[in-house]
């Protein structure tokens, strides 16, 4: 079972940082770090992750038994987030490559996977906006972010039920064949058929390959993006 032992902090710099220190110190597979509030929450591509205190699920999970999932772990986490949210609230989640979870064109959750493959551990960090209203969100995110409450109103779940559902879905998905996970990811692909741009060009997103790389058709042919950020045009 993943999610145990669990360390909960009222305030912490970053649950990922804490989980990485625990993992480097030998913490067992499934160890969970959660917090009500982060003062230095980290996102992908050097960004920060911000959420009003007490309103988001902020969690980092130490995983050691990774294979054969290692390559697609960030995608697996995004699929599990979608499935957990949809099991608790009437929302339809899609995934913006590689692992942003969207409702409509707004971001509900983000995933940051960090680790030391040579030591065979990874930390899966997830930030999921749960009970904030749109006005509670940092002002510069109000146009692009959402929360479960903003989508479904006051009757929606709180962070703890979301955590339980997410651990359950993640546990199941980590046992799945990675090809099945990729199929589930593809069924939620928010970019497929849409024009995107990235630092090196622009084109039409056509899905992901078996390693989770984004395939984009450009005027010069098909391009494969392994990492980085793409934006909708
Ligand atoms: C992204 O969207 O760029 C990824 C955001 C990941 C944020 C979560 S919040 C819990 C965990 N601790 C962190 O510092 N980051 C992740």
Write a brief structural summary.
The protein is α+β, with helices and mostly antiparallel strands and about 230 residues long.
Question: Could you describe the 3D structure shown?
Answer:
The protein has 233 residues and is an alpha+beta fold. The protein is built from five helices and twelve strands. It has helices spanning 15-24, 73-88, 148-152, 159-175, 178-186; strands spanning 6-12, 32-38, 56-63, 93-96, 100-103, 106-116, 121-129, 195-198, 201-208, 214-218, 221-225, 231-232. The strands form two sheets. A seven-stranded mixed β-sheet has the order 1-2-3-7-6-5-4, with helices on both faces. Strand 6 and strand 7 (121-129) form a beta hairpin. Helix 2 (73-88) crosses helix 4 and helix 2 (73-88) crosses helix 5 (178-186). The longest helix is centred in the C-terminal third of the chain and has 17 residues, at 159-175. The mean pLDDT is 95. It binds biotin. Residues 14-16, 38, 41-44, 47, 49, 58-60, 100, 110-112, 125-127 line the site of biotin.
């Amino acid at each position: 079972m993943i999610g145990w032992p669990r360390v909960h902090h009222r305030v912490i710099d970053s649950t990922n940082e804490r989980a990485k220190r625990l993992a480097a110190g030998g913490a067992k597979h499934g160890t969970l770090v959660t917090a009500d509030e982060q003062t230095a929450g980290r996102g992908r591509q050097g960004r920060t992750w911000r959420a009003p205190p007490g309103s988001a699920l902020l969690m980092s999970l130490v995983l050691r038994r990774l294979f054969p999932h290692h390559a697609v772990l960030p995608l697996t986490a995004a699929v599990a987030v979608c499935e957990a949210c949809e099991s608790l609230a009437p929302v339809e989640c899609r995934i913006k490559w590689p692992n942003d979870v969207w409702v409509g064109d707004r971001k509900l959750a983000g995933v940051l996977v960090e680790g030391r493959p040579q030591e065979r551990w990874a930390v899966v960090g997830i930030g999921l906006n749960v009970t904030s209203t749109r006005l509670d969100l940092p002002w510069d995110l109000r146009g692009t972010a959402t929360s479960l409450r903003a989508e479904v109103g006051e009757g929606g779940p709180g962070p703890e039920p979301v955590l339980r559902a997410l651990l359950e879905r993640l546990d199941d998905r980590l046992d799945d064949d990675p090809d099945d996970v990729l199929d589930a990811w593809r069924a939620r692909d928010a970019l497929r058929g849409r024009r995107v741009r990235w630092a090196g060009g622009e084109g039409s997103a056509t899905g992901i390959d078996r390693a989770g790389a984004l395939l984009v058709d450009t005027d010069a042919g098909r391009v494969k993006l392994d990492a980085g950020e793409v934006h909708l045009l």
